[in-house]
Design goal:
2 copies of one chain form a homodimer. Chain A has about 675 residues and is an alpha/beta fold. Chain A has 22 helices and 28 strands. In chain A, strand 8 and strand 9 form a beta hairpin. The two termini of chain A are about 35 Å apart. Chains A and B meet through helix 5, helix 8, helix 10, helix 11 and helix 15 of A and helix 5, helix 8, helix 10, helix 11 and helix 15 of B.
Chain lengths: ~675, ~675
């Protein structure tokens, strides 16, 4: 696959659609491109010059090597332009033009045509329907935005032009620059994963920010993010949380999961930090752009306002880091008191980051406190919060000039720091665990022959799970009364007899479940009762051991297919607790044993696993191994549409699946 | 009780501690007071004039009526000054001076002295250790702050001087004014409840904001807030959330509750909106100060950035309101498109509030969009979010001038609106329900004679609850085998025999619980076993009916004493779920039936109460009546230190307490 390098560092650019028409996209791009110092060719069949610069009438007039093209012409002319570019071996193309798949059936056909041409000529495309690309280190602004990004360390990839221009305007104000600024548009070819992969290896990029409306190739995205996250932080924002809430109401299973749950699972697996709100996205941007990542989680606070110090401590601890030694320098503090406090913090505590808080009081000189803060920068990561507006302004301007992150209230500083630290910890942990994504999946297990039936019987479901290495309660099929008795004798008493049927799905409703049978007679009666009463659909019974639930923890393993993520596996409290307490967590398969243990810790039932009252402790590692095996089984079986193991029971002595239900995809 | 009117609208002010010493608190106050248009007297025994104004040497030289004094002298001289003021019948005093209870034992004694003097002379005190009081409508600035508040509709009461000056600086910047600006300091006399009561009846005040470090008289605070909230919104911020987390780890019961839980319960009962963060506090301040409260919960959005519209919808729905009809006017929109969108929203949807979002794109004119927004103001509540910084600035300034709330990201606007709407709904609902606080408590129930023992036996606990009108499972005492058999025959089989003992607290551990006894013989055996095996501490048994838990919901009623709130009652999932799923909610007693039903809805087990799988439905109203009775019982019994009813079981046929445990306060 061709590198994205020509998109960011081209040896020359051809712009198709050059014009000097006032207010047009074409003119804006011409003006922006004029700062590019490499070869530059403007194309417009009707012009000899544009804004005083020479203009060619066609692509074949280009007489020097060029490796990037930008297209901003009517959609219908794009296919021919691509062919012309292809013939010239110009294989990196940014299509600004709209009018493709977002524009209905005709647009979809047009998009398919350009993709076909791109394939034929080995052309890679950014767009269509995008703002373009900025590459500050190459002085390249191939967009129609009004302003240019500064050069810096942030790689920004956005699916929304509006988010691009807002972020750019904000970044310019705080003096933050970019290594790459890519508007991916409708991602007909190049998508997030491609850009992330490139920026992960780009030495100028230290952090990657994403605004996503769709994820694109989920598996590719996860794989690439996992690797990239070991080199630099990836931060994303993605709308759609409330869609989940709506979907949640939709269906029985849906009440536990919506597509936003899948998005969370994808980001989690890719070690991508998801900003909860736009504000947090901008706040994280400010921090990562201006400061280093703290080495540990001990945050110091110096404040001239005691209450604000406590509120900041609250925000730190609520968000999961440690507030270490907030020092209240009191209301009449001068910058000298801040310096003294810093000396104390530095000498007596080992802090990893500092928040400087100041409120306008009688002796407060914000400029001097800003200068004090500047002295800290470079020693440890620092951010400031000057709380007010009129009186704080001058001090804030000093901070801005010195590229020190400033937040109008200190809880925002606290939240950002805790999230930055949280991501760092997560990635450090993940680096210790080999990812299963790079390992081969287990051998596929043969599905039973169902002749188009999609719902497997309990016996079929359990057999499949047993073959995959999961601990299934011993269950025997019996077609006759005699076989049932033999089975029961083999299994031992008490036992359970259940209807076996490929057509009846709710066994209990038809009297198809008889629990706690103590003798051969009771088993025989159970068989005869079912045979007699359930005429249509009776295909014999299964006999299984009666498990004593007392003192056992009821758990759930599950899987659903999500439109975004594909298979999404779940773990949680089983039995009735599933839906009442919704103590269930989701993940993308496969998971290693270590990842399974981490997942367990996000549930409440985990307390029981480690021993709680008369429950547990159970062999958590064994459970995690089973869940890991289950996750690999799911990953290897794309034929499965839905799966519920509920309950799987666990106690001091055993972990065993009592019931399971598998639905296959229909062909 | 004397009104607070003289503190805010005095006929004259005497300032004790006047000086012109550079940089002193006394001089700052003199300068600030000079703008007061009523009578003004400066007192300093060593001076004839201060800053060119006459100065008296002692209080008795004052020859005209004055009803407010401000004191900023050394703490040790304050008592005599108070006596002098008392003799002059000056009975409203702001003590700025520090050096009282915050300053150790000597300070505590000094504070007690001034409180004694205040009582003798009927003097009310604000402070000590405060910034002072501003009353913009009286041109009174009796503080040492550098700037004066504008006149407006916000009443601000703060226990932190730093929060005062920050808020003031912020408010002056956005052009927001105050009806009263009170720094209550250490609240030796006048506390939050007094100020709230006054401001609730002050026609100039439309909203009350509180920064609280302590609540003061909890019951008084709740009563006054309940009443005040029906007239105007009360918004508070209070540090200490993470203390709760720490306390939580401390003890068994504590793991479910910490003092911050009590604070939440207090605010909830007083209908006080608690800001989660400082940022939210400032954001709510901006909204309430500048805009009207929406009449309903339907929020419209007009945006030139689709993604930001969706993110805003997310924020609205995550926070519990309705996002109605976000209109995306697209990236190339001008203000004309915004106007068109507004016409559409207005005509085809009935929205209660509007968020205007704009990102800097090619055609975006922020000034014109701000002017469009100005046209909406007055029609319905509106706020704006111009996302960027450099390019948005001019438009933001128009918004500021027009007093339109602006938030740098739209999710903040969304969150504020949803919280404002949420509070309004809550208060409207509360207005329909008579508060139990104004009704007499039930008659006290006589406690059993325990001779200093604080832990009641199960039988004593249940009897007490039964007398209070709660449904307790029939339980009989039996001292002999014969009595036990008679009791069992009276109750019926199966039954339970439990040890009765005032000394053994863990009955199960000593074999003191025998379940599911089916016959007279089994009861007799159970009695004999206990009598034989548990020699020390055996005081007979209790016999109760064996309840069938199957199909029943296990619930919990509880009470603990919290240092802040006093008795705090709880409701939630009983049995093992209590601590595993922590499905418990807390409230301040007493609660009406309607309030109990609202409380239930905050739990997950509520789904079971209304019928869920094989559980319920149960008679929720009956349960709520019991919980209300329980809450009144708790409110009437201050001798109780701790109480657990677990489980109380509920099913289609009955609601009954199976076990209870009461701990009394030690004398």
């Amino acid at each position: 696959m061709q590198s994205l390098a020509p998109f960011l560092h081209p040896n020359g650019i051809v712009f198709v659609g050059a014009t000097d028409k006032e207010g047009s996209v074409g003119r804006a791009i011409v003006e922006n491109l004029l700062n590019f110092e490499g070869r530059l060719f403007f194309i417009n069949p009707k012009r000899n010059e544009v804004l005083g610069h020479p203009c060619l009438q066609s692509i074949d007039q280009i007489d020097q090597p060029v490796d990037l093209a930008v297209i901003a012409i009517k959609a219908e002319y794009v296919p021919q332009t691509l062919i012309d570019l292809g013939k010239k071996k110009i294989q990196s193309v940014i299509i600004i033009s709209a009018g493709f798949k977002e524009a209905g059936q005709e647009g979809i056909e047009l998009e398919n045509r350009i993709l076909k041409i791109a394939k034929d000529y080995h052309i890679r495309i950014i767009g269509p329907n995008c703002l373009g690309v900025m590459s500050p280190y190459s002085n390249m602004n191939a967009t129609f935005a009004k302003t240019m990004a500064l050069a810096g360390g942030v790689g920004f990839i956005s699916q929304s032009g509006a988010m691009c221009t807002s972020m750019l305007d904000y970044a310019n104000d705080i003096g933050v620059g970019f290594s790459a600024f890519i508007s991916v548009g409708s991602m007909s070819d190049i998508e997030f994963k491609d850009c992330i992969e490139y920026l992960a290896n780009d030495p100028k990029t230290h952090t990657i920010f994403l605004y996503m409306e769709t994820i694109g190739d989920t598996n590719g995205f996860i794989r690439i993010c996992q690797k990239a996250s070991f080199k630099k932080p990836i931060i994303a924002i993605k709308p759609g949380r409330s869609e989940a809430a709506r979907k949640a109401a939709a269906s029985h299973t849906g009440s536990l999961v919506g597509s936003d749950t899948a998005v969370e699972a994808i980001f989690d697996k890719g070690h991508v930090l998801r900003a909860d709100t736009m504000e947090e996205f901008f706040d994280l941007f400010t921090f990562y752009a201006l400061e280093e990542i703290p080495l540990g989680d001990r945050i110091g606070i110096i404040t001239n306002a005691g209450g604000m110090g406590v509120l900041t401590t609250d925000a730190i601890e609520v968000n999961g880091a440690k507030a270490l030694a907030p020092i209240d320098v009191l209301g009449d503090a001068t910058e000298l008191d801040y310096i003294k406090a810093w000396d104390e913090l530095k000498d007596t505590h080992s802090i990893d980051a500092l928040i400087v808080i100041a409120s306008p009081q009688s002796m407060t000189d914000f400029v001097k406190i800003a200068e004090f803060t500047t002295q800290i920068k470079g020693k440890i990561p620092v951010c400031a919060s000057f709380v007010g507006k009129k009186q704080t302004l001058e001090g804030e301007q000093v901070l801005k000039k010195q590229l020190i992150p400033h937040y109008p209230t200190p809880d925002r500083a606290a939240k950002v720091l805790t999230r930055v630290i949280g991501l760092k910890k997560k990635i450090e942990k993940a680096m210790q665990i080999p990812s299963l994504l790079d390992q081969p999946l287990p051998k596929k297990i043969r599905l039973p022959e169902t002749h188009g039936r999609t719902l497997l019987t309990e016996y079929e479901s359990k057999s499949l799970l047993e073959k995959s290495g999961l601990p299934v309660v011993k269950t025997l099929l019996a077609s006759t009364e005699e076989e049932a008795i033999l089975a029961a004798q083999q299994i031992g008493f008490p036992c359970v007899v259940k209807l076996n049927s490929t057509t009846i799905t709710h066994k209990s409703d038809v009297g198809g479940v008889k629990l706690n049978l103590q003798s051969v007679e009771e088993v025989a009666n159970a068989f005869r009762d079912m045979e007699l009463n359930i005429r249509k659909g009776f295909e014999g019974v299964t006999v299984q051991k009666m498990s004593n639930l007392k003192g056992s923890i009821e758990l759930l393993f599950g899987m659903i297919l999500d439109p975004t993520s594909g298979p999404l596996i779940s773990f949680g409290s089983g039995g009735i607790a599933v839906e009442l307490y919704k103590d269930v967590v989701f993940a993308i398969p496969p998971l290693s044993m270590e990842e399974a243990l981490d997942l367990f810790e996000k549930t409440k039932i985990d307390h029981a696993l480690t021993g709680y009252r008369n429950l547990g402790p159970i062999d958590k590692k064994a459970l995690a191994k089973f869940f890991s095996a289950f996750s690999s089984f799911i990953a290897s079986m794309p034929e499965i549409e839905e799966l519920d193991i509920n309950p799987i029971i666990a106690n001091k002595n055993e972990i065993v699946i009592l019931d399971a239900r598998i639905v296959l995809k229909s062909h």
